[in-house]
Amino acid sequence: MQIAKNQELKIYNSLTGKKEIFKPINEGHIGMYVCGPTVYSNVHLGNCRTFMSFDMIFRYFKHLGYKVRYVRNITDAGHLVDDADDGEDKIAKKARLEKLEPMEVVQRYTVDFHTILEKFNFLPPSIEPTATGHIIEQIEIIKTIINNGFAYEINGSVYFDVSTFNEQKEYGKLSGRKLEDMIANTRELAAQSEKRNPQDFALWKKAEPEHIMRWPSPWGDGFPGWHLECTAMSTKYLGETFDIHGGGMDLKFPHHECEIAQAEACNGHSPVNYWLHANMLTLNGKKMAKSTGNSILPNEIFTGENTILSKPFSPSVVRFFMMQAHYTSILDISNDALLASEKGFNKLMEAIDNLDKLTVKDNSSFNITQWQQQCYDAMNDDFNSPILISKLFEAVKQINLIKEGKSTITKADKTILTQTLHSFVFDVLGLENKNNTASDNKIDGVIALLIELRKEARENKDFATSDKIRNQLAEMGIELKDGKEGTTFNIL
RNA sequence: GGCAUUGUGGCCGAGUGGCUAGGCAGAGCUCUGCAAAAGCUUGUACAGCGGUUCGAAUCCGCUCGAUGCCUCCA
Question: In this complex, which residue's CA is closest to the C1' atom of nucleotide B37?
């Protein structure tokens, strides 16, 4: 693990638009906040990709030996359906439609969220706070922002005063927007608003009598604005300034922009050193939308119960597929792409399975430490998992060559190779080797016996029997492979 | 319309101002009883049009397309 300590990591900071050398505030420690899901429906596959990217980042930091406090919230209130003044809380709306208690909706979809992430082999975050559990903190922040002159109360609601803020600070620096442009682009709408300016956003919304989710506050009964919860929870658990804030590209504006404004209005300084944004996932080249049918749920991929893909794909294959693209790139998911990834994934896993069987020699025919460093270099360059995977396939090739006796490896190098592969494949990328779990000793024994019988038949030139064994096993999804050092098998 | 991201070979996807990504698919060869697997060989790709440069797919400008957000519309 010593090598892991000395790696210099560069990450793309969307606040500055540059790759920067990463320096944590406290050496050896990292505070990271990622905006979690709003739990009003089944978790979206695109969300999974975002969270998976940060899961990989979390894993790599841990692998490097950092102590990471990773906070990912659950939004269980406050996310308005639209930004109009009569906006309804997404959770409350769903509850009304489904005739459920709001917390029933929250519970159902929180469980769904956790179930799916578990299938994808996510590491749980250090803290997973809920918005409704931090109403008091949010009210305190609102009070401070009002006292600092950056918010105003009207009719029981509190709004953030963007233009006043912009006179002293800079609103729009994350998303590259200028307030003047935004004002210029805003047409006069007939709809009356109690906001002073259309750019102002709600910190606290007055609850109408029919509104079911409500809390008392100094401004009357109401509920918090969506942007505020992240500020409250990140500040509480990570401090007024912390290292990394992540989320999907779609949250950059207005959500993250508002978080910056809130934190600066409250504490007087920028809350985050490095902003990371994961890019979107498209399906068959088009954006995913339930309304057009161009949409698929994670579970529908695993079970194969969908009209888009030709067969089911395991969570690890989907994960591998996603890791083959950089987290800042738009990724397109399709049947062909998943099929290709599945083959590549199986090839990688087979090579890892074969590691044990490699025979060692006095010298190695390739430079293992150089290769190992290249793996780190890939990840150190803004978590470039696709490059890492290309390096892993170089190792796969070497493993196959060694297996064929066309390449050699020493005992010491084999240990490094094994450790490095396991670290990157399982610990960092978070993949799971289903070959190890799908088969058990009894099956292995039976197949070994069949392989032995087939070998005898082949030696006796009884090819009818040997082919029967091979073909019938193949029909059952058990593939035999004749190598230089005997026959191996693979359960598909 | 505005802001941002983006457009790479049959498919998916990296990357760099001049030097191999990688996976999948295809072709040839080796191995094999035959296959499969594996290995070797094989691809005149960088949306279009201009410009900067000794040299650009990589930098700049414009055009077109995609995705996200804002606006509009609903």
Answer: A481
